[in-house]
Amino acid sequence: MFHQFATGKPLRLVAYGDTRFTDPAITSGTNPRVRKWLAERVADEHPDVVLLTGDTPFMGTRASDWQDFQNETARWREAHMVQLPTTGNHERYGGDKEGIANYLINFPGIGGHRYYSALLGNVEVISLDCNSPSGASRPQARWFAAQLNHVPRQVDFLLILYHVPWMADRQSQLIAGLPSRDGLILRGILEARLSRIRAKVVVLNGHIHNYERFERRGVQYVVTGGGGAEPYPLVVRGESDLYRDLAFPVYHYLTIDVVNRQLHAVMWKVKDPEAQPLTVEAKDQFTITVPEATGSPATKNRRAPSQAAGKLAAASH
């Protein structure tokens, strides 16, 4: 499906979430001015791909919220940006069946699938559904394990989308009980296979309306939930959080540039959400480099024929 993304061709992505698109007159729980400006700013970054970490609408069953999303992100479609989302809890607010149906209608590029994988040259994106149970014997967990067992040989960077964090700061652990049981199960499935995956892995989560970053067993875990929803202050950041700034609020987005075997990510934070005009500043960044393939068994994984390069490989639940 994505023949435009050849292996070795530079790729630019933007990742962010917790936008809560809705009627601009609604200012409780979401900031319409910042949200709309950030959507425009994302377009100004000219990404090839936009990764959405969930809670895209305020209420998933409300068709008007999805229309507000379409209106405020019109430039994304005008520029033919590929949109790869994941579900959040707000996608099913008002009713699971209707909310998820609206989600699938508004993202036709994912082919009606609640969880899926997409191959973009030397980058693979796996998007999982936080609203589908992920016990070890459940369909989503089995599918996820199968994807990790057969990462295509050309993939240097594996990006995983899941709304609820797989790692969280101390405050979120104590107050919100994060990570969730399902998140820990999925993280365990990943970690059990890391030694056999040559690609470098970045997990992108949302749900916390702030920014956090962790590294565990060589995997970068990034919480990017600053897209416009009411911000959550982090009064204390634990020692494991690689982002130390306590300044609040943290409306932001992430740019991810992949050139050859290097990934460079920058977190761009709105300097002052009350300012006129709004501006952003770079507040965090990290770079990952993949060494040349050595021909070891870990580099020889193949995707099954039904999930060949250039196609959206997906399964639904």
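(ticket continues) Second input and output from the same batch:
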Amino acid sequence: MKKHSFLIVLAIIFTFALTFNADAGQIYTWTDEHGNLHITDSAPPKNAKIKDVLQYQQQSVDEKLTEKQLQKEEKLKDLKEKQNRQIEEAKRKARQADERAKEAVARAEQITRDNNAYVKRLGSTKEKRKQFKKRIRRLKQEAVTAQEVANAAIEEARQAFEAVRELEVKIAQENQPPQENNPQQSQANIQE
């Protein structure tokens, strides 16, 4: 238990020491003649029993800047991957909508052809047209409804492709570096 507490204290002090902007140095862990544990960044007295000496080196400004730049690049890479996934998902949905539209158009064309042929047979004479008047009207309405469904599917596909285009434009604008203002605008902004 004592050793465990010692390690926790040591870790906390080590972390604490690294947070300060101190130059490279050493951290000493030592006990005095009374058995008290000390952790310092200065050398212990000659009669102390040294338990551990940790070496640490603070990062230089260049190293910190490089690390921050790497983190920034990693975040940018993650953002671009997320944006690419969004675009691919939007394209997938647009392709699916396009397939549904093609199927609806083909169905509408088939229903229209079949119904027109059937209406032609049913309405070949005046008597047959009168006798099958309701059926003929229903078949024509069925063809119109199929065409309306196809038109709605076509519109859905168009909107899906438009959404892809808008998403690509939005992402492209987000990824552009900020435009520099001309000096006159900058001066006007300062005066405000």
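Agent notes: The chain has two domains: 2-58, 62-175. The chain has a mean pLDDT of 80. Closing as not reproducible unless the customer responds.
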